[in-house]
Amino acid sequence: MSVKANVRRRTSGFTLIELLVVIAIIAILIALLLPSVQQAREAARRTQCKNNLKQLGLAMHNYHDVYNTLPLGMVHRINWRVSILPYLEQANVYNKLDFNESFQGNSASANTQVLGGIVMSSMICPSNIVDPLTNNAYGTNSQRMQYPNYLAIAGAVDTSVANNATSGKCNSYYGWHCDNGPMKINDKVAFKDITDGLTNTLIIGEQSGRDEGMSYGDRRNGYHGGWHGTGDTKNTAAFITGIGSGITPVEYPLNSKCSDFWSCGVPYLNSNILNSEHTGGVQFALGDGAVRFLSENMDLVTLKNLAMKSDGAVVGEF
């Protein structure tokens, strides 16, 4: 009896080797599972980001329905983001704004009291990992105005041709400024002016990724936050073409690294690179309200054709 009891005791538990095998199997299963969980989370973030672009595109359409034109890309004091606030269920915020005062985040004003510290989720891609209130910590946004992750498309730059564009003109002053896109400085564009077709023209794109090529570090477009326009004094050069926020022409491939200080390398330029934290590309809202994911490997000429509203190069499948 005692021999049987001893045998029973010896076989009732795990050996050390068996325990190690079980632990190894569990570790392998966790290692296999974690990437799937991360991919599922990023898929959800990407979907929410797509929904944000859809809402921004619809807001543009609603604005156009009221005024028969798209909002100005940038104008004295504000950019397009301020103009569409009533169409993003932010009329309560919009109605508190004073358009005779500054929208820049470097000094206190009635508008920084309203917008300072506020993060509007419709303007933020969940995949973004940069704080939307402090992404430029050089004293230019002390009032903590939000830096949105979406830029309106101001056409395309082609430095190899006359006027630096295959259609319209581009000027280089604090970055590139073009008049060949759907969103312009101090000028309005209606849907009827987009002769390439709304389905073939980019309206809004992401700038929610990282660009370590920027000389000020990884910073988004906008020097004094993301709501201000071309300047607070109409007689300055800044009002004509200079430091603002909210728009960009296409010059470089998506998700590329900036290598030119005066073209894309600092946050006060209006020609920063479009990018995202999504694997392989960047999302855009088109003129017809659709949202498309464009590969970072797509042909740059095709991307520029999509960014220009009337160049006559209508893109088919892309």
Query: Averaged pLDDT, please?
Result: 86
Q: How far is it from the N-terminal to the C-terminal residue, by CA?
A: 81 Å
Low-confidence stretches: none
Any idea how many domains? Answer: 1
Largest sheet: 5 strands, mixed
Number of helices: 8
User: What share of the residues does DSSP label as strand, in percent?
Assistant: 5-15%
Q: Encode the helix/strand succession as letters.
A: HHHHHEEEEHEHEEH
Shape: globular
Structural class: alpha+beta
Approximate helicity band: 25-40%
Sum this structure up briefly.
With 318 residues, this protein is α+β, with helices and mostly antiparallel strands.
Molecular structure report:
With 318 residues, the chain is an alpha+beta fold. It has one domain (16-307). Helix content is 29%, strand content 10%. It is built from eight helices and seven strands. The protein has helices at 2-10, 16-67, 80-83, 91-94, 110-115, 237-240, 261-264, 300-307, and strands spanning 150-156, 170-172, 176-178, 202-206, 247-250, 281-286, 291-295. The strands form two sheets. Strands 5-1-4-6-7 form a five-stranded mixed beta sheet. A two-stranded antiparallel ribbon has the order 2-3. Strand 2 and strand 3 form a beta hairpin. The protein is globular.
Features:
single chain, about 325 residues, alpha+beta, 5-stranded mixed β-sheet, two-stranded antiparallel ribbon, 8 helices, globular
Write the topology of this structure.
Elements: H1 2-10, H2 16-67, H3 80-83, H4 91-94, H5 110-115, E1 150-156, E2 170-172, E3 176-178, E4 202-206, H6 237-240, E5 247-250, H7 261-264, E6 281-286, E7 291-295, H8 300-307
Parallel strand pairs: 1-5
Antiparallel strand pairs: 1-4, 2-3, 4-6, 6-7
